[in-house]
Automatic annotation (TrEMBL):
PROSITE patterns: ABC_TRANSPORTER_1, ABC_TRANSPORTER_2. The keyword Transmembrane does not apply. GO terms for cellular component: plasma membrane. Residues 7-249 form the ABC transporter domain. It comes from the Bacteria. The keyword Electron transport does not apply. Gene3D superfamilies: P-loop containing nucleotide triphosphate hydrolases (3.40.50.300). This is ABC transporter ATP-binding protein. Keywords: ATP-binding, Nucleotide-binding, Transport. GO terms for molecular function: ATP binding; ATP hydrolysis activity. It comes from Agrococcus baldri.
Length: 251
């Protein structure tokens, strides 16, 4: 096990025009740890994910992956050093089957063509990876189902299978429960637990507080673009500053 944290943020700031979107955000996520990110609407959670994944470059501070400074690296360069991300909105190809979606993700890792119109040959490894990843999220029975007709919960599982296919070490999950029906929540929670249980480091933004608090080792609380607190779920929920930040909202 490396002793360097899987992810480090050092005084990360983001200024857009005159607006200060992130200010002096510093924290570390240990290898194999699962950390949740919460905060009221507009607190800067998505922007924080954008600076970690390379969608946005911070205007100050540094982002390090396993000690490697990736602050100015592009999204695909960060993916190459082990960072994977899901988005708030679904990113599956609805007209392709579940297996084809995962095979495309696997192809990108194997270095092959990633066009949906050029499927890999059965023997290039991507099909085997797709089978394994679909089984890991319990979607094996939907391998031949068009992704567009899956339930929201199953689409989220498919996105996680596509993520696993790229073999990330650090995984960013952006509101995995968004739009998921109550009947699908328990299954998805189990998939996220397994994703983490297999040794991956996970950072997750999630508004579904009960789900988040039951899954994570620590919680980071964002407020007005700043890190208000980072601690165990119990300590964070008992923190008067956190309670004040959420005044009028259900924590
Ligand atoms: N490109 C941009 N230009 C200007 N302001 C922006 C930009 N992106 C985000 N913001 C502002 O930065 C703040 C933080 O937005 P962000 O989406 O990161 O918050 P959030 O915590 O993810 O909110 P939510 O919970 O509603 O998704 C908001 O006030 C938003 O309007």
């Amino acid at each position: 096990m490396p002793d360097r944290p899987a992810l480090q943020l050092e005084s990360v700031g983001l200024q857009i025009g005159g607006a200060r979107i992130l200010h002096d955000v510093s924290f570390e996520v240990a290898t194999g740890e699962m950390v949740g990110v919460i905060g009221p609407n507009g607190a800067g959670k998505t922007t924080l994910f954008n600076t970690i994944s390379g969608v946005m470059i911070p205007t100050s501070g540094r982002v390090l992956l396993a000690g490697d400074d990736v602050t100015t690296r592009k999204v695909h360069q960060r993916a190459r050093v082990g960072l994977g991300r899901t988005f708030q909105t679904s990113s599956v190809f609805p007209g392709l089957t579940s297996a084809e979606n995962v095979r495309m993700a696997a192809q990108s890792k194997l270095g092959g063509a990633t066009s949906p119109w050029r499927f890999p040959r059965r023997d290039d490894g991507a099909s085997g990876v797709a089978d394994r990843c679909l089984a890991e999220v319990e979607l094996g029975h939907h391998a031949g189902t068009e992704a567009g007709v899956l339930s929201h919960g199953d689409k989220r599982k498919l996105e996680i299978a596509m993520l696993i296919a790229t073999e990330p070490e650090v995984v960013l999950l952006d509101e995995p429960m968004a739009g998921v029906g109550s009947g699908d929540v328990a299954g998805l929670v189990e998939v996220i637990r397994r994703l983490h249980g297999s040794g991956r480091t996970v950072l997750m933004v999630e508004h579904h507080m009960e789900v988040l608090l039951g899954l994570v080792d620590r919680v980071a609380v964002m407020h007005h673009g700043e890190l208000l607190a980072i601690d165990t779920p119990k300590a964070v929920m008992a923190d008067p500053d956190v309670q004040r930040a959420y005044l009028g909202e259900t924590v």
